[in-house]
Sequence to fold (197 residues):
Amino acid sequence: MNKNIIISVILGVSILSACSKQAEQTIKNSSDSSSSKIESISSSSIVSQNEAVNQQQSSVFGDYSAEQIEYARVTEELMNYYKITEQPVAINVVKNGENHPVFPFAGSVTVPQATITLSFSTDNTMAGTVIVTYSSNHNGSINFYRDPNHYQDERYIKDSDWVKQESQKLLDSTQTLEISITYDSQAAQIISKIQVQ
Fold:
């Protein structure tokens, strides 16, 4: 009799153990499946969001080139940086090659990489114009310095040592600025004003 009870208990424990393992496996498989579905949903959401952003950008800017879009975005970001609220009436772009001078005078230090000089004016006056020289970091940011609006000091012409010192100071004042898509709707309104020289 005791032998039958022991065998029954052993069989019962074995059956319970097998059922428990099967239940654990079912739960694990279900969890893996849910996790895969969640990853799939998350991944497709990110793709959809990126596609939506790209479609929005292309619809905002129409057929303008990537360069023109860059200049418009940089202009709007700089306007925000300098707290300029009026829209520009003119935007001019000059492409500078490698090793171009900071100042257009003898003695000026040079900038080793190619840059863009971007000027925009809210009223076509010297006082209402901002001139910036920048280079892209190819990560959504630029390095830039603000150029003088005019060169009235006679030392620009007469003193090349002074020009070297002042141009180095300006180059050393270079700052980094993130260029966002926050102002794309405003950038789309000014993009037609860009003139590349």
User: Anything to note?
Assistant: The longest helix spans residues 2-61.
